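Bug #77: duplicate submission created two jobs. Keeping one. Sequence:
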Amino acid sequence: MGEVWTEDFAVLELVQELRAAVSASNLKAWEMCQQRLEEKLDLSKKINRQYTEGYRTCLEYQKGKFLEDEWIRRHRKTLSYTRKEPMEQRMFCEERAHVFTNTETILLQQIALAEKIRGEKEKAVEIWELILKDYGRSRIRMENHFKEVMLIWSNLANTLPDVGKTKEGIALADQGIRMVLEKGQGPLNMLFANRIYAMKEAGQDVRKEQFEQAYALSEMFGDLELQNSLKYYIQKNWPSKEKIH
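Kept job's structure:
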């Protein structure tokens, strides 16, 4: 989740350990790394406090200590350390002084996800559209920027059909797939699932053409994650004996 301010190499290694624990959904290791990081980082620095509190909120939500309303409230408070103006005001502000930071972007993504989970899908779309426009044109953390932008892209493409914008969701997923294939990195499996889901919602017959195309690409790129995602989606939505290739 974003960046920290420190000159201690050991702390930077601890940050990497924390991220690995989060990626693996290892809550025990996450808690241990979290506590050590909170002890070692200078929390008088707003950027460090924002970083650790963001992770702490996510950890406690994963442990089931509170629901989405509290998740949103805590992230909004954490966001306010570096973003003083109300988020709603910023959403409708045409002239922005600068783009969101990496940490602010991740906090906003999680707020959008929490809004979606609690049924406020219009709000989720509004937030994802905002950060895609704002953060998407920045060049923060170039080594990871494209992947992070495409994750926002995928979330937005997946949610647009839920608010009656199925065509827009299909178009966004199609564009995202082309961009990922050109760049060679990004959530290809998620974007394919987004497109197929949106087309199915629109009543289009997508099984044969779309799944065969997706399988061919997944085999070409050796993307086992994509293949497994497609198999799961087939079994869930089209429980029949027909094979896709």
